[in-house]
Structures are given as structure tokens and as C-alpha cells.
Amino acid sequence: MAQKLTLKQIAKDLNVSISTVSKALRDSYEISEETRSKIKDYAKSKNYKPNSIALSLKNQKTKKIGIVIPEIVHHFFATVISGAERVANENGYQVIITVSDESFDKEVVNMEMLANGSIDGFIMSLSKETMDKHDLHHLREVTNQGMPIVMFDRVTNDIACDKIIIDDVAAAHSATDFLMRKGRKNLGLITTVDYVSVGRLRTQGFKQALTERGYECENHQVLKIENADACENEIEKFVVGNNFDGILAVNELFAVTASKALQKHGRSIPDDIAIVAFTDGMLSKYASPTLTTIGQKGEEMGGIAAAKLIERLEKKESDSESYETVIVKTSLIERESTP
Amino acid sequence: MAQKLTLKQIAKDLNVSISTVSKALRDSYEISEETRSKIKDYAKSKNYKPNSIALSLKNQKTKKIGIVIPEIVHHFFATVISGAERVANENGYQVIITVSDESFDKEVVNMEMLANGSIDGFIMSLSKETMDKHDLHHLREVTNQGMPIVMFDRVTNDIACDKIIIDDVAAAHSATDFLMRKGRKNLGLITTVDYVSVGRLRTQGFKQALTERGYECENHQVLKIENADACENEIEKFVVGNNFDGILAVNELFAVTASKALQKHGRSIPDDIAIVAFTDGMLSKYASPTLTTIGQKGEEMGGIAAAKLIERLEKKESDSESYETVIVKTSLIERESTP
DNA sequence: TTGTAAGCGTTATCAG
DNA sequence: CTGATAACGCTTACAA
Fold first, then answer.
1. Domain B64-165+298-328 belongs to what architecture?
2. Given pLDDT bands bounded at 50, 70 and 90, which one contains residue B315?
3. For strand C, which nucleotides have at least one atom less than 7 Å from a protein CB?
4. Does the A168-295 domain belong in CATH 3.40.50.2300?
5. In A, which residues are within 8 Å of B108 by CB distance?
6. Is residue B286 less than 8 Å (CB to CB) from chain A?
7. What is the spatial distance between Cα B128 and Cα B122, in angstroms, rounded to a whole number?
8. Interface touch A94/B94, C-beta < 8 Å
9. Are B294 and B277 in contact (CB under 8 A)?
10. Partner residues linked to B191 by β-bridges
11. Residue B2 contacts A where some CB pair is shorter than 8 Å
12. Residue nearest to nucleotide D13 (CA to C1')
């Protein structure tokens, strides 16, 4: 069990000073060709790798990015991580993941742990509880220290930072429009409670599309789900008890649940009732019938978030205190659940 | 943008020495009640948090665990991360995630990066390519340095480390048995190529169960999928072209694909043909019909892996060079795809 | 009770 | 061309 090789050890083994070793390995012109290659050969043969912790301390940067998400066992967030990880790696960064479990307290604790020098910046999506309480002191503390944050999906305008979102209003609007163009007139929306920003915005887009076409959007056409784990009965009652010919759902889970409930009651999809869902994940592709979805481009959002963050980390600080909001285009992926 | 607070800064602000501050904050008996509370109050008011990088360097331990997995957008691996992250956090550790994308080279690079002091130990599942080439030098290098590895799911016996697996042979055996007890006589297996350890072992369990009951397992009863991204046609041909009344699939994706192909050809599930799949994920719960599965307990495996690793990290080194293999019990979750 | 100094592994500055 | 020294932030003998 060979001890980890350090500059000191190499210096001792080769009877030179530590700084000579350091310089030789970094190809300094100050070191003679001879010693340089002697040292480099030795280092290579022993597979020397500089200690990244020491470098972090010295350089005051860790080359690590903290990702804070509400959940990891969730297709959308997993794709975001995937995209962020890829771009981070391409730029010599690594990602540290923490999960808030939709809890404000866990979000605070996780961010405090990471902010103590472990990382250079954050990529995050707010927990439900944080959005509900709207307590953002932990985020302010981080930005006040000069540590940049890039938010995605569930964001807030009350923190100075870059944001990566999809245009939820427009996407919901165009999906609703799509259903109406297919001749559907009685539309139902299955969404989340309003404090979840994406749910609220999608609801807004849905309603806008309806009123623009002169439909009134009665309250009973919108179902707001508080707890996704126990939504089955609610959704069944909603879709079966109303005379819809089209459904828009803000995520796959709500959509599949609705689809199954409808089929159980003998309704045919898409003939009797069409379904469009947000989030293009596994369920949509493999449900029966397959679901028409609005792709959320998680991979892309994650990649952009990482790129933005790294860009900010690497440019001379102090300049450009202007933050940007990137809106990632969504696209409708038509499958069997719409005619 | 307040600069990050350090001991040095506190010492200067309060006109004491750095070590006095350090000791006071750690409640050393050496420091007088008065200075101690003065320092602690000040630190608290300014929200001082020790720099974790400096601590890592000093203590030669990072309190970080590296997780190396083949894929992250994959329900099973996501659950493993979730379990590992939870247990790690409970013990004051954080997790750094890297993804090999099933590539040997990426696995090597990722592990080398992390092994340079960034983490205290690894939790990992081998990439397909690594299993295929069976080149394990990067793993040996890590263990030779005295850095522990805990492997899960896709493991090898050629590295001295703890392992967390399910009993794939037994699970496949009992699932096959289950189908036979339901009166099914013509069974098909959809599995992966043999170098993926779990695929090989599950195939073995399947065959064992058949021969024990006196069936011969002809080759055409086993379909080995090389590339999961393009398996649709292969699976369709296999399940439709043979006269099966039962199918065992080594993952959900193969199972759902088979299910849809069969339904397309007018076969009824489970009446004409029953299906059992490994991995209890989203697809199984929401497919039509819902799938009977063998739960793989990813969350539990991740938790055990983290616990084992942390246990090894925190016990006096040198002792106990004996490694353990934990076999996590699986359970059959019966749903609509079996009678 | 407080402070000084060495050390963790690096790099950078400056002296020899 | 090579080496000693300080610094990054923290802990801990040891000195005062």
C-alpha cells in the first residue's frame, strides 16, 4: 500500500528541492533540460498526480460545481445533472450533487456545507418548500460571498443570478392551441399548486390560450395537485367526472395516471380524448398509448447552466454584474395520445 | 460582497492570535470563559464557517465519497445515488458523482481525477466496456493507495473490496420458478450480453430453473441484447416468432418493449403470455398492463454501500483486510402482467 | 491563559 | 539553474 506520492517525496528520492520538482513538472524554463526530464520521468514512472486539495487551497478555487436539486430519482432532474456533468467535465470541473428532498431545511444545510469552500459555484432548482415560504436568505448569503448561482426550472426573480428556464407560459399556450386546432373544445388542465413556479406559469399559458379563443376557463377545468404521491383518485374523479375531449398535464405522471383512469372507464385515446404532457421522459415513450409531450430539454438546460456558471467563474470577477435569463425552446413531440 | 471570513480575519478583528480563535471555537479548556464567548459570539454573528478545503488538507480526509456509475439517467442508478447520498449526509459526508457513460476511458479518467485527494473512497458500478475488456488496473491503483472501494451491481471478484449485490442467480431462478408454477411451459428470456455480470448471472438462474424441472433450454429461448437503444425489432421478432407463454426480462425496458410488441400482435397479457421483469421502476408501475417485477432495491443498495464505505473509512486502518459481500434480498412484486 | 510555529501539498517570489 | 521561504486556512504541540 504505497503512500500517496507528493512533491516532497519526489524531492527526497531525487535529492533536489521541492520547488525544483514543482517547476520541472510544470516545464519551467528555469530548470535545466537534464534535471527536468529526470524529474518528469521519475514522476511519470511513479504515476505522480498533484493533490487537488492542496491546489484548491492554494488557488482558492476548487474546480467543483455544486448541484442542488429537489429530487434525483426523477427523469427531468437526472437529465439536467447529466448535461451539467458532461459540460463540467469537458471544462475540467466536477460536480457535487446534493438533494433537498423538497425540504427547505435540507436545502439550507446542503448549501451551507458546500459554500464553505467545497465548490466554486452553484447550479440549483428550488425546493417546493422554499418556493412556498419564499425564504431566500441562504441564497443571498451565498451570492453575497461572491459565489455565483445559476438557477434552472424552479427559479425566483428575487436573487441576482443567471437563470435557465423554458418558456412555460408559451409552451402551455401552444400545447393548448394545438389541442384546439385538433378540434378539441372541452379542455382540462392537471397542474400543481401555484407556488411551484412552473405549475403556475403553465396554468397561466393554458388559460391565456383559452380566453384568446373566446372560451371561458371555468375553475372546474383546472385541477391543482398538492401531493403527487397520492393523486390517483383526484385525477380519476377529475377526468372521468368532466366531459373533456382534451387534457393538458404539467408532467408525465399526471398524464399517465389520467390516461389509465380514462381507459379504465372505457374512453378511447385519442379518439374520445386527447392528452398532452410536459416532460418528455420514459413514461411518455412507453405508456400505452404513447404520449404527445412537450420536451423539457433537461440535458440541454443542464449543459447551458454549467456553461454559464463556468463562464462566470472564469472571467475576471467584478465586471459584468448583469445577469442573464436563458429561455430554452421547447418542442412538441407528437405521439399516439393526440390525433 | 463580503470576503469569506477566516480565522485570521477574526483574530485581527478581535486582536487575538489565530490559535486562540481556533481553540476558542473548538471549546478548548485552555481559553478563558471570557475570550471564548467573545470570540464565539463574534464568529456566530458573522456566521463563520471553517473552510472545508483547509480542513481536508490538514486532516488528510475530505469527508467526500466519489460515486462512479455507468449512467445517471437510469432509474436504478438514480435510486442507488439517492440511497448513498442520504446515508452519506447522515454521517457528515458528501457525494461527488461522475458518470462513465459505459466507457472504459471515461471511467479511468474520472477515477484518476477523484483519487487525487478529492475523496476518501469510492462507490462504483463497472462500465460495460470495463467488464468486457476486464482491464482493472485503475481500480488496483486506487486500492493500492489504500483508498477503499465498494462495488455494487456490476462487480468483479478480481479486486479486493466490499461488494453489494443482489443474488441475481437466485432471483432469476425464483422468478422463472414462479412462472412455471403459474403453469407456463414455454419460457423466453430477454437478457444482455454475457460480459455484463448481472445479465450473465440472471441467464444462469433462468437456465438452472428450467433444467431442474426437466426442461431443456434451447438456445432460441434466450435473446441477448447488445445495444439497448436499438432493441425493438430484435425483441419483437423474438417474442412474436416464438410460441412463448412466459417471458423473463432482465430489465424494465426489455419487458415493456416485449409487452407492446405482443399486444400489437393481438396477444393478451397475462392470459396468453405472462411477463416478469427485473428492476422495479417507473415503467413497470405505469405500463399497461403494469408489470410484475423483481425489485432491485437500489435505494437500499446505495445506503448499504455508503454505510460500508464509511465504516471502513472510520475504523483504524490497517486492521481487518477482510472484505465482505452483502447480498441484498430481492422481492417479487406481483402486478397485472402475471396471472 | 495566550501566542508561536510547524505542518498538510502546492505554487510563486525572490535570493543565491 | 536551483533552492529557501511565504502563503492558502486550519489544527496542535510547545513556549511564554
1. 3-Layer(aba) Sandwich (3.40)
2. confident
3. 1-5, 7-14
4. yes
5. none
6. yes
7. 18
8. no
9. yes
10. B224
11. yes
12. B19
Q: Give per-residue pLDDT as tens, A219-231.
A: 668 999 998 888 9
pLDDT confidence bin for B215, thresholds 50/70/90:
confident
> Among B62, B287, B288, whose Cβ lies nearest the Cβ of A53?
B62
Protein CA B30 to sugar C1' D16 (Å): 14
Q: Do A82 and B73 touch (CB under 8 A)?
A: yes
Q: What average pLDDT is seen over chain B?
A: 92
The rounded distance, in Å, linking the Cα atoms of B179 and B294 is 13
Name the CA dihedral angle for B81, B84, B89, B92, rounded to a multiple of 10 degrees: -130
CA dist A90 and A318 (Å) reads 25
B76: distance to nearest CA of chain A, Å?
9
- Three-state DSSP at A180 gives helix
**What value does the mean pLDDT take over residues B191-218?**
87
Cell digits of residue B78: 438514480
Rounded Cα gap, residues B339 and B333, in angstroms = 12
For chain B, residues classed under CATH 3.40.50.2300 are 64-165+298-328, 168-295
The reply to whether A99 touches chain B by the CB within 8 Å rule is yes
How would residue B30 be classed by pLDDT, with cut points 50, 70 and 90? confident
More confident residue, B145 or B249: B249
Q: What does DSSP say about strands B274-278 and A331-333: parallel, antiparallel, or unpaired?
A: unpaired
